Amino acid sequence: MRRTVFNEDHEAFRETIRAFIEAEVVPVYDEWFAAGQAPRDFYYKLGELGIFGINVPEEFGGAGLDTHKFEAVLYEETSRAGVNFGGSGVHVLLALPYIKMLADDEQKKRYLPKFVSGEEMWALAMTEPGTGSDVAGMKTTAKLSEDGTHYVLNGSKTFITGGVHADRVIVCARTAAPREDDRRFGISLFAVDTKSEGYSIGRKLDKLGLRTSDTAELAFVDVKVPVEDLLGEEGKGFYYLGHNLASERWGIAFGAYAQAAAAVRFAQQYVTDRTVFGKPVAHFQNTKFELAACQAEVDAAQAVADRALEALDAGELTPAEAASAKLFCTEVAHRVIDRCLQLHGGYGYMNEYPIARLYADNRVNRIYGGTSEIMKSIIAKAMGL
Length: 385
Fold this sequence. Notes:
By secondary structure, this protein is an alpha+beta fold. The protein has eleven helices and ten strands. The chain has helices spanning 8-25, 29-35, 40-49, 69-81, 88-102, 105-117, 237-273, 285-313, 319-343, 354-362, 372-382; strands at 122-125, 141-144, 150-161, 168-174, 187-193, 199-204, 215-226, 230-231, 275-276, 279-280. The strands form three sheets. It has a four-stranded mixed sheet with strand order 1-4-5-8, with helices on one face. The chain has a four-stranded antiparallel sheet with strand order 2-3-7-6, with no helix packed on it. The model has no long low-confidence stretch (mean pLDDT 96). Belongs to the acyl-CoA dehydrogenase family.
């Protein structure tokens, strides 16, 4: 289909990324899959390629752009190859917006050059064992010391993508108790150095999908966090989180669309090569109809994802529009990938085939970043219901 979201710069970037994936990722991806994570030194390669600095101001070593379109190309190219870049997506899509929005000049000078090079990988820690979508229910605390030089962090987090390799983690913690009329009050954000005493990584979680993306439990026991690592104003953390949810949900939506498009590509290749009853599976009417139906859904998801991308870049993507895009694209991907796996027959269930890994990877899209049910609630509220 004719698209208008990308220009020559984006397509040149696509060629570079495609060649990089073929040379640096595809040959070793099975090793990453078996290990359950991408190796730490891979992130230095992404830094050298300039991926981490696209949206970072030039004074800190970045390209100084303000767009999510290069991230969109990354989603499409990694999905096309049936790979992912470990926890690097969190580093760019989730952590960077908070640094750019909340860090003061001194903090940016400390954080961003190492962010761009991959020397310091970042993650975001919101979810706790007892609180998922209900962020306001978090129990982790950060109490200011008597001398006012640091906060003392105590608590735990779970499902933290990039948590194993992270050098800094944006931790959401309570600096004050919630008010009776405002449960969201009292949450603050901290850029926590993972080498701090009392900071520990628990289990590297054994996930259904996204096997090469390290996801961990984190624990904090009397961790001293310098006041210089408070991001933004104390007590406003919940509102900062809400500000960046639209971009996170766009990322999930666009990634889901890209996965669905990749699934159709994998299935088309397979049914063209696979012979049954003396002829390629692609020659059967059912195969043609299934793939045609899937392609129609992918075309619709692409249009929704592209529209959300344009709105995001223009600073106009509303929470309800982001929720709608996430809900639609993730549900489409769920249906399309399942049907494309079916066309693979028994081989579709084997992890050596990218469709099997894609099937497992895709499932979390309807859970993280807010479940499909939460998306429906947001949309309904915007409708006045």
